[in-house]
Amino acid sequence: MGLLNRLDNPYNISPGIVLGTMEDLLNWGRARSDWYLQFGLACCAIEFMALNASHYDLMRFGCIPRTSPRQADFIIISGTVTLKMAERIKRLYEQMAEPKYVLAMGSCSICGGPYWKEGYHVLKGVDRIIPVDVYVPGCPPRPEAFFDGMIKLQEKINKQKIFEKRARVAQEDAKNGNIGNIHLPHGWEEVK
């Protein structure tokens, strides 16, 4: 019996212990405790209210609304983005801490919606001013579609390489002369 038990559990790990990398653990925590900044502009913002109600319960994903961009992990842009509001969205995005994500909700925020052709004041997609990570299509999108977008965002966060990105950014800053005399830790030079 001892040999069979050892084959089932080759590392002799007691129940309740999980093996993994530090990056996997950090990504797991970040993906399941996202704080969001909601930037609602039109009818999609009304649909977003249904997501926060008891029937759909957005908080089951670990999403907590924040009022400051400095505390938010991602921003939800919902509704028609006008050219005047584009400046404010860009400013809010720049105030968010890294890593930051953007979720575009609804046809108007994705491509201008029904106003894209005749509306001289409508931005033809929020991705023209800030990078969008997840698109949730619809006019307005159903809560189920938004949940699908949330799952895609969580998958993206789970697959993110935190430490490789830090090394790459440090290398780029050193090459561009943004920071004086950086000493990169051993092994970070080979990261591409």
How would you characterize this protein structure?
By secondary structure, the chain is α/β, with parallel strands linked by helices. The protein is 40% helix and 11% strand. It has helices spanning 2-8, 22-31, 43-52, 83-95, 107-111, 143-158, 162-176; strands spanning 35-40, 64-65, 74-78, 101-105, 134-136. Strand 1 (35-40), helix 3 and strand 2 (64-65) form a beta-alpha-beta unit. The radius of gyration is 21 Å and the shape is globular. The model has no long low-confidence stretch (mean pLDDT 78).
Précis, in short:
By secondary structure, this protein is of the alpha/beta class. The chain is built from seven helices and five strands.
Low-confidence sequence ranges? none
Distance between the termini: 48 Å
What radius of gyration results from the CA coordinates?
21 Å
Strand content bin? 5-15%
Helix proportion range:
25-40%
User: What structural category characterises the helix and strand content?
Assistant: alpha/beta
What does the average pLDDT come to?
78
Count helical runs: 7
Strand tally is: 5
How would you describe the shape? globular
Strand order of the main beta sheet, please? Answer: 2-1-3-4-5
Largest sheet: 5 strands, parallel
H/E series: HHEHEEHEHEHH
